[in-house]
Amino acid sequence: MTAVLQVSNLRKAFGGVVAVDGVSFEVHPGEILGIIGPNGSGKSTLFNCVLGQLQPSAGEIRIDGQVTTGARPCDLNRLGVSRTFQLLQVFPQLSVHDNLILAGQEHQGTMSSRLFGRTDAGLGDAAAQMIEFFRLSHLAEEQAGSLSYGQQKLLDAAMAFMAGPRLVLLDEPAGGVNLTMLGNLRERLQAYHAERKATFVVIEHQMEFVMALCTRVLVLAEGRLIAEGAPDEIRRNPIVIEAYLGH
Amino acid sequence: MTRLGTAVLVGATMAAIVAPFFLKPYGIFLISTWAVLTIAAIGLNLTLGYAGQISLAQGAFVGIGAYTVALLTPLGVPFFLAFLAAGLLCFAVGWGLGYPALRVQHHYLAFVTLAFTTLVFLVLRNEQWLTNGIYGITGTPRPSILGWSTSGARDFYFFCLGILAPLSLATWWMLRSPWGRAFVALRENPLRALSLGLDTRRYTLMAFAIGSSLGGLSGALYAPLVQFIEPNSFALGLSFNLLLMVIVGGAGNFFGPFVGALVAVLLPEWLRITQGYYLILYAAAIMVMMAFCPSGLLGLAERAIKSLNGRRAGATAAVRAEGAGP
Known about the structure:
- The complex is a heterodimer.
- Chain A is an alpha/beta fold.
- Helices cover 37% and strands 24% of the residues of chain A.
- Chain A has a domain at 5-80 and 164-245: Rossmann fold.
- In chain A, the strands form two sheets. A six-stranded mixed beta sheet of chain A has the order 6-7-8-3-9-10, with helices on both faces. A four-stranded antiparallel beta sheet of chain A has the order 2-1-4-5, covered by helices on one side.
- In chain A, a hairpin with a 2-residue loop joins strand 1 (5-14) and strand 2.
- Chain B has 14 helices and four strands.
- Chain B has helices at residues 3-18, 25-50, 58-72, 79-101, 106-126, 128-131, 153-176, 178-188, 190-195, 200-226, 236-249, 256-270, 278-292, 296-324; strands at 137-138, 144-145, 148-149, 228-229.
- In chain B, strand 2 and strand 3 form a beta hairpin.
- The longest helix of chain B has 29 residues, at 296-324.
- The radius of gyration of chain B is 21 Å and the shape is globular.
- The interface between A and B is medium-sized, with 32 and 22 residues.
C-alpha cells in the first residue's frame, strides 16, 4: 500500500544551524502518527517543510507517491493535505459558518466558476454538518474572533477537515487548551478518524494527549529521528527518556 | 439586508435621481464628481478595505484612465472603446503593481504604491509629446448614446450615474461570491488562507487589478466631466483623498465609498461659508471623525443601530419581567 506521506532524508539548514538532519519516515493510510521532541528538536521545521512553508535544503517528500518537495501550501491543500496551526489561525471577522465555507470553497470548481457560482460555493450544508460535528452549532453565526480560545481551536480543527483531506497535520492542537476542552478536542478527532478513516500527523507537547490519540510515535532530538514505535514503547524507551521525557 | 437598510438604500437612490433637478450647474458638477470618484473609491475599497492591500496609487490610475480617454477620443476612437481601453490598461498596470504586494506589506507596500503615483505624475508632466505636459489636455468630448447627447451637466450626471450603477452591482456580485470571502481572507490571515488552498498570489494580483481598473474607469469619466486635465490633478493628493473616502465611509463596507466620497466632495464645499478656514475645519472634522469612529461613518451607524436594538431588547425584557411579577 502506498504511503500517504513519505519523507526521505529530509534536511533543512538555516545558515550553519541544521534544524532537520536526514529525517525519513512514512505515514500509512488511516494512521495517527505522533511526532514529539523537546523544544528546538526540529518538529515545526519538519512540518513546515512538509507543508510547503519552507523549502527543504535536501531530501524528498511524496504525497500518495507524488513528489511534492517545494510545492506551495495551496497546491498541497488541493492535493488533500490540510493542517492546523500552533497559534490560533481563524478569520476573526468572519462568522464560524463563513470560516468553514472558506475552508472548502477553493476545492469547488475553478476560480472563474466560483465568481459566478453560489455565495456559499454549494457548501452550506457541509459547513453546517461540520459545525454540528464539532458541537459549535450554537455559535454558527458568531464572529470567529468572539469565540473562546478552546472554541477557536475546535473551529481551527473543523476548518482543517472541511475539504475532506487525505492527510491532516495537526500542530500542537492541545496547546493552551483547558482540560475539559482538551478532552472534547481529542474525542472529536478520534470520532472523525473513526468515521472518515483520515490520516493524521500530530506534533504535540502534551504527552497524555499524544499517547491517547496516536497509534505510532516518532521522537526527534536535535533534528534527528532517535526513536519510533507504539506509544507504550516510546514511554519506556530509555533514549527517549534521556532526550525528552527526562527533561 | 435589513428593512431599515433597504429603506435607506431606496431613499438614497431616489435622492441621487432627483437631486440634479433641484441643483444649480455647480451643484450638479459636484454630485457628478461624487459619482465619478465613488467608482475609484469602490476600486480602492476592494483593494484596501476587502483584500487588505494598502495602496496610495488609486489617484494615478484615475490619471491613467483620464489621459487614455483624453488622448484616444481626439483620434476618432469612440468614447466607449476609449472607456474600455482605460479599464483594460489599468487592469494590466494594476496587475503589475500587485507583484510588489506579493513581497512587501503594510507601510512598505504604501511606499511602493506612493512611488508609483510619483512615477505616473512625472510621466504625465515630463512626456510632453504624449501628454502635453503641464499645459494639460482640454475639451475631452462628452459622449452621445443613440442620439442622446450627454454634453449638458444634468445629462452627463445621469450618464455617470448610469455607469456607477452597473459597476456597483458587478462589484457587489463579486464580493458576495466566494471571491469576496477570499479577499477578506487575504486581509485577515493570508497564511491560513494559503493553507486552505487559496491561491493568495492570484487573488492579491486580482484585487489590485480589479481595483485599479475601477480607478481607470473613474478617470475615463473624469476627463469629460472636468474638460481639462493636467498632471497635478492626479498627484498624490488625489490618492490621499480617495484613501480618505474609503476610510471615512468605512473600509471593507460595501457602501463605505459612497458615503466617504459624499463627505470628501461635499463637506469642503459646505464649509466654504467659513471662507479661509474651510480647509482647516475640514481637516479637524476628519481628525475628530477618525478618532471617534475608526471604522468609518457606516461603522458608527452600525454601532448606533446595534446599541439601539440592544436597548430596545432590554426594555422589552424589563416590561415582560414586570408583567410576570406578583
